[in-house]
């Protein structure tokens, strides 16, 4: 068996890339699971990019047009008229992408695990037997613990966090996501309540299972009303290089993940587009350069995370007072971009009054962010 491109990993990014490449290359996807979906993931994707990337309406479970931010002692709300993000069914999204890729001529090897490279070939374990597949080009889209990244000798400098998420039955405001920033409940990350509908929400956080349990109690959601539990991990940092010889990494495998929210689906897909252009031009060296937007966002997100980890809860309360002011809320409501947090931060910091108040909380906030 010989292919132009062998994609290792049939998650959202690998399947998306398979669709992009199908017209110009002979492509195969290797996926270790026997079916799609099942990964811990809230499935929130910015509405604008969802449309731009051509993702399917049928995977959308809910439309979110606002957020309520809670700290320990206060809250504020931002909203827009139109949906800013969608909450999607991961399995439906992955399966839709895979079905279209097959229709475009891509071969799928399900329940098949990539083990490593030998003599330029991919060694795969498939239903009890070992096979070798040869390709001109290999892409690791195999997630945060990428075997391909290890096999190509990529260097990782990152903070890895475990994520815990439940689906819980309760009563929720359907088009608003809740974001809780309370370091006494969880010192590692914010906590979220993302409604699937009025009756069910995905509630989660990164850090520890204890933090999620504390939050469920505080939010008065009964542990016995949980109908699904999932755990996964994310990596915030850098993994280099993204391409070496005839191997490239994309998606979580390359840590193309927003450290502000742990969202990785859109950034992975944007980089998949860049990888396609580089492959078509035969200039793999251009791949990382073409991902400049994602790199800038990841770098901003890492600095934002440093700021967050350096703030005590009292500082967070003061930041909440500033962000909850009418001036800040108006900026967020009119200019916030779901996938461009740098732009949102700049819009806020351009206002002299807000800037002066934030500097008073901590001068390092501004130095670190800009
Ligand atoms: C709790 C939690 C909540 C999240 N919420 C969001 C969110 O709301 N929005 C968002 O955008 N992102 C979210 N993320 C991040 C998101 O899940 C990832 O960014 C996204 O899944 C990346 O897609 P991917 O295709 O690169 O990798 P993955 O989804 O990890 O897919 C990799 C695929 O490769 C396969 N694979 C792995 N190893 C091998 C191997 N050796 N051989 C063959 N196949 C292999 C895996 O089975 C998997 O199917 C969340 C993550 C967590 C943990």
TrEMBL record:
Annotated source species: Thermococcus celer Vu 13 = JCM 8558
Protein name according to UniProt: Bacteriochlorophyll synthase
Pfam family, one: FAD_binding_3
GO molecular function: FAD binding; oxidoreductase activity, acting on the CH-CH group of donors, NAD or NADP as acceptor
SUPFAM superfamilies (alphabetical): FAD/NAD(P)-binding domain
Domain FAD-binding intervals: 3-170
């Amino acid at each position: 068996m010989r292919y132009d491109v062998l994609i290792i990993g049939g998650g959202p990014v690998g399947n998306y890339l398979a669709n992009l490449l199908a017209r110009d290359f002979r492509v195969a996807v290797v996926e270790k699971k026997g079916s799609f979906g099942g990964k811990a993931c809230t499935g929130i994707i910015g509405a604008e990019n969802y449309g731009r990337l051509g993702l399917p309406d049928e995977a959308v479970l809910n439309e979110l047009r606002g957020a309520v931010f809670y700290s320990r002692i206060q809250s504020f709300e931002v909203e827009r008229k139109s949906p800013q993000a969608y909450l999607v069914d991961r399995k439906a999204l992955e399966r839709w992408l895979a079905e279209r890729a097959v229709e475009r001529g891509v071969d799928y090897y399900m329940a098949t695990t990539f083990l490593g490279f030998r003599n330029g070939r991919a060694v795969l374990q498939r239903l009890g037997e070992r096979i070798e597949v040869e390709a001109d080009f290999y892409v690791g889209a195999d997630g945060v613990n990428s075997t391909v990244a290890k096999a190509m000798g990529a260097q990782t400098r990152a903070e890895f966090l475990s994520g815990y998420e439940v689906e819980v039955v309760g009563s929720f405001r359907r088009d608003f996501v809740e974001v809780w920033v309370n370091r006494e409940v969880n010192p590692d990350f914010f906590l979220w309540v993302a409604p699937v509908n009025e009756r069910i929400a995905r509630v989660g956080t990164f850090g520890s299972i204890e933090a999620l349990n504390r939050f469920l109690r505080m939010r008065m959601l009964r542990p016995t009303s949980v109908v699904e539990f999932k755990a996964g991990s994310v990596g915030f940092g850098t993994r280099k290089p993204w391409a070496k010889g005839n191997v490239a990494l994309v998606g979580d495998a390359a840590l193309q993940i927003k450290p502000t929210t742990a969202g990785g689906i859109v950034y992975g897909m944007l980089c998949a587009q860049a990888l396609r252009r580089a492959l078509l031009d035969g200039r793999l060296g251009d791949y990382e350069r073409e991902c400049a937007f994602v790199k800038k966002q990841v770098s901003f997100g890492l600095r934002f995370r440093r700021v967050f980890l350096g703030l005590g809860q009292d500082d967070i309360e003061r930041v909440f007072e500033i962000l909850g002011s009418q001036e800040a809320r108006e900026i967020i409501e009119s200019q916030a971009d779901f996938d461009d947090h740098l732009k949102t931060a700049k819009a806020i910091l351009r206002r002299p009054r807000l800037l002066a108040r934030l500097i008073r909380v901590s001068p390092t906030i501004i130095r670190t962010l800009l």
